[in-house]
Amino acid sequence: MSEANELLRTAREHTPSRRAPGAHMSRAELAETVCAWLWDTTEVRYELDGHYIAKLERGAVRWPGAAYRSGLRYVLNVASDNELGFSPPPGVVVTEPELTLPSTVGLEDDVSDAGDESISFLTFAEQSNVGDLTVEQLHADILGIAQNYLRAPTRPLFVRSRSVRDRAFRLLAGRQSPKQSRDLYSAAGWAITLLAWMSVDLGRPDVAERHTRTAWACAEAADHDVLRAWIRATQHTAAFWQDDFAGAAAYAQDGLRYAAGTSALFLASAAAVDLARCGRADDARDALGQAKRMPATPADSEPPGLFICTPERAEGIWSDAYLALGEARHTLGHADRAVAMFEAAPHLVRNFGSERMVRLQQAKARLALGQLDGAIETLEPVLSTPLEYRVRPLIHRISEVAALTAPYARTPQARQLREQIRDFTQHPDLPARPTRTRRRKPGSERPEAPTAAKDPKPLEPPKPQQPGAQWTDAHPADVHPADVQASDPRGSDDHRPEPQQPDVQRARAVPHS
User: Fold this and answer.
1) Above 80 in pLDDT, residue 510?
2) Looking at residue 134, what is its pLDDT?
3) Do 135 and 180 touch, CB atoms closer than 8 A?
4) Which partner for 291 in 5, 178, 268, 417 could form a disulfide, CB atoms 3.0-4.6 Å apart?
């Protein structure tokens, strides 16, 4: 007789019902909620029902399909299949993709069209209009989207943000009191800012700029300083991912004029990264000092989730700044603290997206310090990221890690890691190869590399070597995915000289999402 799956049953019974207040979710309700999420995510209808949930809880089925596992992880708020008692049969190699359709596939036209639509509302947003309608539900929807950001797939959140924006402008076409108009403009501004941030995640920072212009007009109409501050933060992020570090710094510093709550902490920290990338080391250190003196207390009007800069998120940004300054030891110290705080956070408020990016900072710093085994261990959780959470910045930055393994190209560990990263970036529908870290013999560890404090100015990124290649992001990078493929250890790497210490200056900063 199969052993019952108590982990799955316990997770369901600890999930509140959306229909019956005070009760837990029934098997039938769980199945319906998973099917609804799968439809929003993949636009494919699934036939999961309560009887199948019962079979899973009895242990009759220990390894359901990839789509069902993804849906159950999301609805029951867990990070891995193991937490729900799911494991593949012994000896079975998992080759199935996580979902039938990645959450960002097919959005290319939608992302561009959404930016055009926001621009079409710009003239309207700058006018004064009144009406007699409530915006309570609009703001509730924005709170829900911001709270789920970086914990849920991008596609359904993008669609919901777009819907909130459109509803707010339809309401503004009526007549309302000045206060209600300000509330509606505020709702529209937050929704458009969400669309802008998601556009960066989807590889279109140029589209994000279109959104933020209309969002700024909404913030002006609403006279909402905290919204202004987070719009400036979004404009900084869009400029940063287009290598315009001077422009990004200007946005961050201007945003401090309006900042309250944690927006001030985010903007001061982000300015430090931008200034370091511009070669203004003294100004960057001043900005870091300012940021470290700021409290991480949210303002009343800051939506939770994306628009809150937690202490761990700030630590991650500071690690970016120190890496840009060429100080890998300080980078590693702040990144280690950030990851420890992310891991200690409750699951419902844990920012997994930012945590993955900080782990890449850890890996870069460890590679720069000659700690290959430590870097490989750090990357294991990132390489197991489910398909629906592999946004463009994550794909982009992990390619840079591959470039930093070049000095270790003749070691088996580095070869295997580069193959894993190549699968992750070029074949995201394949599961990552398991990492097998070999223990070094005592005394065989590489000596730690000195930091590059003498020359804090970061190197300019090289231009892609293959014009017209398929990687179309406008993000800054040290490596083009085509370059990663060209340095396949099965090819020319066999003829490279013995490994040298990595150049700390090439370890680029990660995005502060």
Assistant:
1) no
2) 59
3) yes
4) 268
Report DSSP state, residue 261: T
Per-residue pLDDT reduced to its tens digit, 131-149: 444 577 888 889 889 888 8
* Cα gap 194→493, rounded to integer Å: 43
This prediction has a pTM of: 0.63
The DSSP H or E segment spanning 276 is helix 262-277
Cα 105–chain centre separation? 17
As a whole number, mean pLDDT of residues 267-272 equals 96
482, amino acid identity: A
Q: Would you say residue 492 has pLDDT above 50?
A: no
Residue 93 has pLDDT above 80, yes or no: no
The neighbour count for residue 276, using CB atoms within 10 Å, is 29
What whole-number distance in Å separates Cα of residue 300 and Cα of residue 350?
Answer: 20
Instruction: Answer for the pair 275, 260: CB distance below 8 angstroms, yes or no.
Output: no
Q: Within 10 A of 131 (CB to CB), how many other CB atoms are there? A: 16
Helix 50-58 / helix 27-42 crossing angle, nearest 10 deg: 110
Residue 45 structure tokens: 């209808």
Q: What pLDDT shows up at residue 60?
A: 86
CA–CA separation, 363 and 461 (whole Å): 19
pLDDT of residue 284: 95
Fill in the DSSP letter of residue 19: S
DSSP string for 312-324: HHHHHHHHHHHHH
Q: Are 292 and 336 in contact (CB under 8 A)?
A: no
- Banded pLDDT at 1 (limits 50, 70, 90): low
Torsions phi, psi for 289 (to 5 deg): -60, -40
Buried b (16+ CB within 10 A) or exposed e, 443-458: eeebeebebbeeebbb
CA 478 to chain CA centroid, Å, is 19
Distance CA 32, CA 104 (A): 23
Segment 440-464 mean pLDDT: 36
Q: Output the six-digit token pair for 371.
A: 């700690």
Identify which of 172, 94, 190, 92 has the alpha carbon closest to the alpha carbon of residue 126.
172
For 72-130, the DSSP string reads HHHHTT-SSGGGGT--PPTTPPP-S-SSSS-TTTT-HHHHHHHHHHHHHTHHHHTS---
C-alpha separations of 232 from 43, 227, 283 in Å: 34, 9, 20
Q: Contact at 8 Å (CB) between 201 and 389?
A: no
Would you tell me how many other CB atoms lie within 10 Å of the CB of residue 253?
Answer: 19
According to the 3-state scheme, what is the secondary structure of 146-203?
HHHCCCCCHHHHHHHHHHHHHHHHHHHCCCECHHHHHHHHHHHHHHHHHHHHHHHHCC
Give the span between the Cα atoms of 169 and 185, in whole angstroms: 8
For residues 509 and 478, the answer to whether their CB atoms sit within 8 Å is: no
Tally of residues, the chain? 513
Structural contact between residues 233 and 197, judged by C-beta atoms closer than 8 angstroms: no
